[in-house]
Amino acid sequence: MVDRRSAACLAVGSELLGERWLDTNSLLVTRSLARCGVVVVEKRVVGDDAGAIARAVTELLRHVDLVVVTGGLGPTADDVTRDGVAMALGRGLGHSCEAEQWIRERYAALKREMPPLAQVMASMVDGARAVHNSKGSAPGMVIEVGERLLVVFPGVPWEMEAMLERDLEPELARRWPGGRRAVRTLLLSGVIESEIEARVSHLYDRFGRENITILASPGVVRLVLSCTVAREGGAGELKAMEAAFRSVLGEDLAAVDRDSLEEAVLDQLRRAGATLATAESCTGGLLSARLTEVAGASDVLLGGIVCYSNRAKEELLGVPHELLVAHGAVSEEVARAMAGGARERLGTDWGVGITGIAGPAGGTADKPVGLVHWAVAGPGGVWHRERVFAGGRAATRQWSANAALDLLRRVHQGLDQGARAT
Amino acid sequence: MVDRRSAACLAVGSELLGERWLDTNSLLVTRSLARCGVVVVEKRVVGDDAGAIARAVTELLRHVDLVVVTGGLGPTADDVTRDGVAMALGRGLGHSCEAEQWIRERYAALKREMPPLAQVMASMVDGARAVHNSKGSAPGMVIEVGERLLVVFPGVPWEMEAMLERDLEPELARRWPGGRRAVRTLLLSGVIESEIEARVSHLYDRFGRENITILASPGVVRLVLSCTVAREGGAGELKAMEAAFRSVLGEDLAAVDRDSLEEAVLDQLRRAGATLATAESCTGGLLSARLTEVAGASDVLLGGIVCYSNRAKEELLGVPHELLVAHGAVSEEVARAMAGGARERLGTDWGVGITGIAGPAGGTADKPVGLVHWAVAGPGGVWHRERVFAGGRAATRQWSANAALDLLRRVHQGLDQGARAT
Fold first, then answer.
1. What is the pTM of this model?
2. For chain A, which domains are there?
């Protein structure tokens, strides 16, 4: 293990404190720093307020090795990051002729006169090294504060990203040679978080609690494994971690380093040359929408049917009228008929059917809100599962879509004969 | 103007410090607090580390009236928010029988045994009031710290959101009566942000720039009008603002105080007793998924067809083979046939068809990536529009779904005869 440096991100901008916008720059900073073996331990957002910026910088410099501030370096009145940083350090601001020259060149390249207002962007905190901005006009600053480092970059994502790569990463490699961070994400489906926690907790001591993160969403659990490795080679420990977790997770592991369960299932079917059709009632198209969010999904998914009414189930999927009358639309029988109907009507190898009561209304004593039946029809038969999901309409719909994908991936791999009938 | 209280959001979770996830809960907290006249002045994220949580809570309580902490209240070893908060306040943790009872009831409702691990969620900071979690198992806490308030809620968004609305908002209204922020949201479709900005900018001086926010997403623009008013009555200024904006926006105004365009369109059709069916190619079910996200959508939406292949277009929608050969799947003719086919096959009053090239692959010189055709079929004919959308696959799909909803709302209101043919 190599010693890990710590960092914090501070985003400046009153718009980032409203109801709509989030600080996404921190993701770019985190990724860049990970390449240098520096780990982000805190993020903050403050408004365009020099006092708030100064307080945040002061507090953060007390407990991390590196603070990366983004935003508030433009030429307008609400750009006060320079003042806030100077205030925090108790230093003055001085004009940098080098920075002014860069700004002039930038305007010249755009065939525009440099407005007098833009001069302020050449103002640098005393002792700062000016950082050239190859994609915009506001230069950045790298400031040594004792053993610590304070970096101030503009908030425009592509400007900041270029400065991270071209300036900060080489600077950090020089300054703190040693480690980088390697990460592997194990994607699990058909399990719940607490179950996984119980199964893997004996591995915490062996690999370090801080190197293992469990992320749960309805129907999908992600295990993120990470370790700091030497700059050259050294992925051995991560491989050992992955192997240890794999042996515990077995069939519940759906994919490694994949963005989503739908991407993993599409890949699995694509490798087998198999095609898929969906029949959705309570999910109303959510499953097909998620599948088609993945570029290239059309290789596998030929189509789907959203049957929000009994008529649609009968006419578009061929679900027998008697079945709907005898068992109701939310039943094992109808889920099976939907999966089979989708497969048949679209001429695919596999069909998935989902029917349930997403709520908030529509529940009964027998069939409560959250009850969902799902089925997978394939070359060897039709498989079915059911469950009552909690958490409301949106969560039930996500649970249902993931449960159906999970059953499909297991059945297609020959893992879930227990659920079979018909 | 009434004095405004300040707040900070603290999100706890090591996954929120990685390269993938952002703290989105803070947006829900910000919106909820705005309704109470409380303004968020800082946001922070720290990992699952009791010391880091304690330091953040301590620092924030020094300079804001209210700190809202989310996340880290679950039952697993990395859920350490309880410990961090207790550490910050120098208080102990005690078992709450009331909270345990809630947790037991939660497991009982799911027909599952409460695991011993779950006990820890009933552990409360001394002096805290336990807050019931109606959508999940981990209770929250409201803690008085002198004049200030510390609120600790679980990180699951829908759990937290319900607790904000049902518990925190009434609590804040009692505690800090006086000002609240009255807000009205005008939802516009079929327009772009810069156009709207130009049309409304003359109203900024009259009502105050800080009281007007324009939020743009692909195909939908929201104008958020707000003013601080006394708790009782006083909505007069907001009414005047709304009237002034309405007169400028005209037919582009789709709805007032609605969460989404799909909700507005469903309401519009429901009021007319009309039914709807969808036929989706490039959006792959996104439109029907969004429509069915709205509770009660089944009154209006009877079903949909995702025709990701030509076979599906022909067999499920009756799009003539010759039309597909002559014009290609992405064409005005096919969009019209899809809308008509959906209407006919599902026996609805209205049908919507969307076909396009979402990308990243599949574009040609004639039909570039981003080209989308959409059509609406109704009692009086079939209406069509087309456009090349920019911004990539996900944005193009959202644009397309919103464009189709916009055409439907206009045609149904008799506003868009210009697009008609057939």
1. 0.79
2. 5-175 (3.40.980.10), 179-256 (3.30.70.2860), 261-421 (3.90.950.20)
